[in-house]
Amino acid sequence: MLNFSGCSGTIVNRLTQVNVVSIYSLEKLISETRRIARDYRNATGKPLGGVSGEIAQFDACKALGLDPVPPGTQGGYDAVGHGKREGKKVQIKGRVIFDEEKSGQRIGQLKLEQEWDSVVLVLMDENFEPFEIYEAERDEIVEAQESSQSKRAKRGAMSVAKFKAISQLAWTREFGAEDDEVWDNQSGS
């Protein structure tokens, strides 16, 4: 029997570290995690804490060609890119949108004082399935935070709406990676 107590790092890294991936497909484990999180919310009315970030990391890495950083890596990033993102240090945030009518939804705190090149935001539906992934470069985020008068912004907080406004659409459930054309989130067309 495997004992996970005392292991550090993310679920993904813990599983990789002890080679459980050879027993269970990581994709199958994430799929089961989605089901458990959905069932927990349906049963309790509350989200299952800490799960959306792990699912978001898995989904972002798979969709955008990123490698999660090894356990114990110091820094403010979760993954490193390949291809057009070669060597890019990426912070990954996830947000489950249970009610699209609800305003003021926020993403997790951005680690402005740490080293990273871009932030990826994975938006998930009520079934914890990704439907859109946005990416913003460090300069865009820092500029938005510095121009804000909000005390929350100064601490690295940002709304989902603000993040979408300053970022580029990187992936959609319908079309996959949005690499071939620039998506203009300002034109309204």
Sequence-ordered SSE layout with sheet pairings:
Blueprint: H1 11-17, H2 26-44, H3 51-64, E1 66-68, E2 79-81, E3 89-96, E4 106-107, E5 118-124, E6 130-137, H4 138-147, H5 151-154, E7 158-159, H6 160-166, E8 168-172, E9 176-177
Parallel strand pairs: 3-5
Antiparallel strand pairs: 1-2, 2-3, 4-7, 5-6, 6-8, 8-9
Helix pairs in contact: 2-3
Number of strands: 9
CATH superfamily of one domain: PVUII Endonuclease, subunit A
Instruction: Output the CATH class name of one domain.
Output: Alpha Beta
Which segments are poorly predicted (pLDDT under 50) over 5 or more consecutive residues? 1-12, 14-18, 180-189
Shape: globular
The rounded Rg comes to 17 Å
* Main beta-sheet strand count, sense and barrel state: 7 strands, mixed
On the 0-100 scale, what is the average pLDDT? 82
Q: What gap, in angstroms, lies between the N and C termini?
A: 55 Å
**CATH topology annotation of one domain:** PvuII Endonuclease, Chain A
Number of helical segments with 4 or more residues: 6
What oligomerization state is this entry in?
single chain
Strand order of the largest sheet: 1-2-3-5-6-8-9
What CATH architecture label of one domain applies?
Answer: 3-Layer(aba) Sandwich
| Percent in helix | 25-40%
Order of helices and strands: HHHEEEEEEHHEHEE
How much strand?
Answer: 15-25%
Structural class: alpha+beta
